[in-house]
Amino acid sequence: MPVSEALDHAHRVFDVVRGEILHASNDVVAQSWARCVQQHGLDPSQRRLPPVLGGVDLPGRQRRMATVIECARYEMTTLYQQLGDPALAVVLTDTEGVILHMVISQEFERLAQPLGLSLGAVWSEAEVGTNGMGTCVAQAGPVVVQQADHFQSQYTGLTCTAVPVYDPAGQMTAVLDVSSRSIHPQNHLLVLLNMTARMIENRLIDARFRDAHPIHFHSRPEFVYTLHEGKLVVDDGGRILAANQSALTQLGATPTELRGKPLEQVFQTTLDDMLERSQRAAFHPIVTYRANAANRFFAVARQPVHEEGTPRITGAQVPPIAPRVQPPARPRPPGHAMPAATFGDPRLVAHLATARRVVAGGTPLLLRAETGAGKEVFARAVHASGNRTGGPFVAINCASLPESLIESELFGYRAGAFTGAEKGGRRGKIAQSDGGTLFLDEIGDMPLPLQARLLRVLDERMVTPLGTDEPRPIDFQLISASHRNLAEMVAEGEFRQDLYYRLAGIELELPPLRERGDRAEIIRNLLVEEGRADAALTPAAWDLLLHHPWPGNLRQLHHVLRSAVALAAGAALGLEHFPSLNVPASVAAAAGAPGAPEEAFLSPQDAEERASLLNVLESQRWNVSHVAKSLGVSRNTLYRRMHRLRIPVTHNG
Ligand SMILES: Nc1ncnc2c1ncn2[C@@H]1O[C@H](COP(=O)(O)OP(=O)(O)OP(=O)(O)O)[C@@H](O)[C@H]1O
């Protein structure tokens, strides 16, 4: 920013703080500016970079916040993929504004680092003035700090949207922030960030209370098992241990009021009754009433996550700290872990048949596919149809586990084996998969020393839990998967050749979503998953979804649909409900919501032609007859051109 503009900015800040002008974009910003001047003694005309923690400070903080970071990591990556914009960072700070984890492209990092957006940087209000992360902490609520809302002029190129993340005790534990150079309103992003924060909080509850009974509830049955559900965790004696934000809101209670309370003081029922009725109802929501009131709720009580048959734990979803049962929108009985998977694509049909044949003979199966392309769902389908279907399906993601934990996760340990070990010891995943299937996802990320140990297990079919010297025989079907090319890794010396041969009894490549012919069916099934089997999509939304390149594959599609369902709140899904797919706001807002799905696939000339045609269409309110006339072409020619340029035809065209 030129010096004169920086000085203007500083004057404006002081004027607002002195109350001479009322020209801050909102009260939150004005209050924050006042704090910066009056409490922190900051000067907006001075350049101030956030201090960066040195030495052991950052690793120490990261260790203390390990569970939060692990629970947030996956959701942050998903959010980043959903936003699909390399010019932004998804950031997690602690409540002192220290950046603990970031998802950021190298390109944006180069731009953002000189501004202090780096691991260990302290973005508290006291250090750098009004900013998304620090002001969110100070304000204890969601904030948007857009460009000139920043206190220091050097940050006025940034836009930061931040929301608090609460721990199971209801205390703010972290801040989730998206920082970019966006000049656009951040309303949609704020919704997405809030949703992501809620997902992280639910994971934190699962991680902290693995041995407790989860109770899912909502006043509307279709919201049970969705992000909007209230969630309580209850001990065996029926006492409430924790509640998520939705539960607190729905029950009108604070965390302290709920903690330790017997369930029957909250609902007119006991835990045993709820468990029994939930089981009888095949885990469809059952009716229950608020204690001492007439409010009706729909609820499902379940056994603790780790006791439920083969819960839908994916390694990518951060075990061992936080294994969680993916909340199915359509309730399924425990043990019945498969979602309504779709395998309508001819290549997948053939692969599934091949996989079933080879697995019947006990041959190890290696899957290769892009991230989120459905490797685990495919592996589950193979397991479900094989002769081990009665046995457990145990999944572990080698990429999402810290190296130090893979070993104990796989091989287990006995009680007291090392500091921090669980009191009763733990059976390793390999032992748990006895009689069933062991799914090793992202096997390419397994460290070399552990590859040797795994190889030995595969050869001997015996495991020796950590801290013991008694090998135990074990019988499991191995399915492994990676998005990396293991053969190439072997050639580079990054993966053991002998292990590769052991894993790849047969190797199958699963197609990415953009190449699958069954996309429409998948979308329908995912909407069923989200409890919105009846959801209508506008033609433009269909067009967008069917042609999007989906770099994050099915996982991204699932998340995008989940957000859209939440944003639409019961209405038909239109372009405006898919903000992360980069539909230009003006286009999405136009009548009939015609979309701009695939600029990425157009040549630069076509993209230019598309942009100018969109302008004309917009200026003529999408009246195709008028536009055709103004361009001197027939309506049919215009339709063909729109089709070529991937501009959906509107209902009023
Ligand atoms: N065949 C399918 N039909 C419908 N939905 C699917 C299918 N396969 C995957 N999904 C959806 O995509 C999500 C990701 O699937 P899955 O976990 O199997 O992918 P993955 O390739 O193992 O992911 P990662 O590479 O991140 O480990 C699932 O939660 C589910 O919502």
TrEMBL record:
This is Sigma-54-dependent Fis family transcriptional regulator. The lineage of its organism: Bacteria, Pseudomonadati, Pseudomonadota, Betaproteobacteria, Burkholderiales. Residues 320-335 have a biased composition (Pro residues). GO terms for molecular function: ATP binding; sequence-specific DNA binding. One of its GO terms (biological process) is regulation of DNA-templated transcription. It comes from the Bacteria. SUPFAM superfamilies: GAF domain-like, Homeodomain-like, P-loop containing nucleoside triphosphate hydrolases, PYP-like sensor domain (PAS domain). Residues 355-566 form the Sigma-54 factor interaction domain. It comes from Ramlibacter agri.
